[in-house]
Amino acid sequence: MDCLKFKKTFVFAALAISFTFGQSAFAIDAAGLTDVIRNANILKYDKSPKVTISGAQITTSVDPMGPPGKTSDQDLKIDALLIAKALYDSAPQELTSCKIIFSNGGKDAKYTIISRQKVAEYSSGSVNAQELLGSLALTSVVQESQPEVVEGPFYERRMLVWERIENLRKHGTGVKPFEHLYSELEASIKANDEQKTIFTKLTSLEEKLSGQETQMAQAKKVAQGKGIHGNFKGSASPSQSQPQSQSQNKTTNYHDLPSDIQTLIQSVENRMKNAQSILRARGDQEGLTESGVLCEEMHGLAKSRSFPALHRRVQDFNRFLQSKRIDSANVANSGR
Hints:
Elements: H1 2-21, H2 30-40, E1 50-54, E2 57-62, H3 73-90, E3 97-104, E4 107-115, H4 116-124, H5 129-135, E5 139-140, H6 155-170, H7 176-190, H8 195-224, H9 244-251, H10 259-282, H11 285-303, H12 307-323, H13 328-333
Helix pairs in contact: 1-3, 1-4, 2-3, 6-8, 7-8, 8-11, 10-11, 11-12
């Protein structure tokens, strides 16, 4: 315990002294600040932190933060203070806020925000080390999923829209495009845009959500029925209403796509078919629904030739198999 107290005392003494003699900040960009953190030897585990600048805030992503269960919040707060101090020493004075995000492979992520003023107050003796640490809060990144819905037009509708986005997220749907549109909508509110503009953006977002929800509902029905109609072959897009034979002739072949994409589609199709057979045998209805959603999305991305997005969804499918403890190699060769 005495060693721990000594370590903390030494760390904060070094912080105060270095702040006193490190006031010669100069113009520097995000890449330069990233080098500052890497060269400061503050982080024990992460040797490649990422620094970005947005407005007056510097954001640093630290991954890994340390062994799960062995890295205390107190350790993270001390690291965060040292990071903030090093950044403020080199950053222009107009950068007044520092956000430090800690995670382990994107899991159990936490962040804290430290102002330039707070570090300056400690260096001047206005607050002591215990007060400074006590003033810092580590917040789970998951808690950020509910944004601050600003007061203004269509408040209730905007609240409901965000709940719909969260519901899609819970069912495994990629929601980044919807989140981006939502952020633009909230920005319009804050900017006091014309109500007509806000109404148009809100209505457009609601329509896009409705389309995605319809696809998800159809994928759920597919997953509950016989056969794997949500796969690339023999699958019609949600907007098609032709007889089955006609839609199959239209969607069965992808000969106009690059050969590597055709190979990828065939591989995913086989693995999806057999994975859903396994899930059906287990009685895993939730898994069938998720796989159906993935099916529909990959089908649409292939048809629209959105190949980078298709590759990302294939990666999501691989992670889905891992989460369901379905061996990808066995699935590919199970031949059900």
